[in-house]
Fold this sequence. Notes:
It comes from Marinobacter salinisoli. Pfam families: GGDEF. Strand 6 (285-291), helix 12 and strand 7 (320-323) form a beta-alpha-beta unit. This protein has 12 helices and 7 strands. It has 2 domains: 2-167, no CATH class; 177-323, Reverse transcriptase/Diguanylate cyclase domain (Alpha-Beta Plaits, 2-Layer Sandwich), CATH 3.30.70.270. The chain has helices at residues 2-7, 9-34, 38-61, 64-86, 94-104, 107-122, 131-167, 177-194, 208-215, 217-233, 259-275, 298-314; strands at residues 198-205, 240-245, 248-254, 277-278, 281-282, 285-291, 320-323. The chain is α+β, with helices and mostly antiparallel strands. 64% of the residues lie in helices and 11% in strands. Strands 2-3-1-6-7 form a 5-stranded mixed beta sheet, with helices on both faces. It has a two-stranded antiparallel sheet with strand order 4-5.
Amino acid sequence: MLHRLKTDFRLSIITLLGACAIIGVTPFAVYRFLQGQVLVGIVDTFIVAGVLASMAHGWISGRTLVSGRIMSLSCSGSAIVIGGVIGEPGLFWVFPCLLTNFFLVNPRFAVSVNLLTIAGLMLQTDIYDSLIQMWSFGTVAFVVSVCAYVFAHRNESQRNMLEHLATIDPLTGVGNRRCMDQELALSVAASERTGQPCTVALLDLDHFKSVNDEFGHSVGDRVLVDVVSLIQQNTRRTDFLFRYGGEEFVLLLPGTAGQGVKKVMTNLQSVIRKHLRVGGQAVTASFGVAELDIGESVDRWLERADSALYQAKEAGRDCIIYANCPRAQSEAVASQEECLLT
């Protein structure tokens, strides 16, 4: 529970508002009913119920964007009704709504809801003592919304930038290990749900340390960028490439298995051998390939691919090992073209 609150900002805001609704609005609802103000009491009750329902929806479904929109619309609509029923004192309730809308939904949606809320309150002219008071309220509410929008827009941009930096390898521009963990988990879940095959391939550049030692790290970095470019040019846009660490990469192939994987791997091996060069010499790669088994965990899946990669290295490098391949031969055959491991 605490982990979800720490990692899901919108859910934490929804939960905080739920707590505030229980603590802050419920006593007012009870007070309204005791004073005979039934309509206002019903509106207050509706606010509490809407907030709690949105909070429950967010926790159960995980769809916090939908929960945020429901909460934003219900609270803002209730603020309009309260302003019309109890008059000027009800206007104070609108300002928390104008601010929190930018935490519940995206800035554009929040702007639309806020403008509709302000307009809905200003159209009820009997709330105000004079036109000056009405326009003063509208101006203040608009300025509050503008300031909140600027803050929310900047915060969203910074959050997107941080999320990008947290999931992208800065040198090669492909996903990093954190991004890889997320995509592999999604692939396992999708495979369990739909039965779609999925394959992961670990590839490691052969003798890469000697490239750095002989030509320098700047040349080594260029080689890493070049191999990423070659792989992306020779795989589908629906495939995912991640930098696993150093000169090791992970290629995720959703919906691919059997002969389809063999064709892709053989082509990549040939392309890398042909086009990846440094100092006039070819740079090759070793591959460990594992098709996802039914009910297999991400860790076990990667472990099999890593074991196959180790076998490829032991077999002389510049070859491909298919872990537990159904069509594999009974013994591993090491060659410069391909290695099969049963």
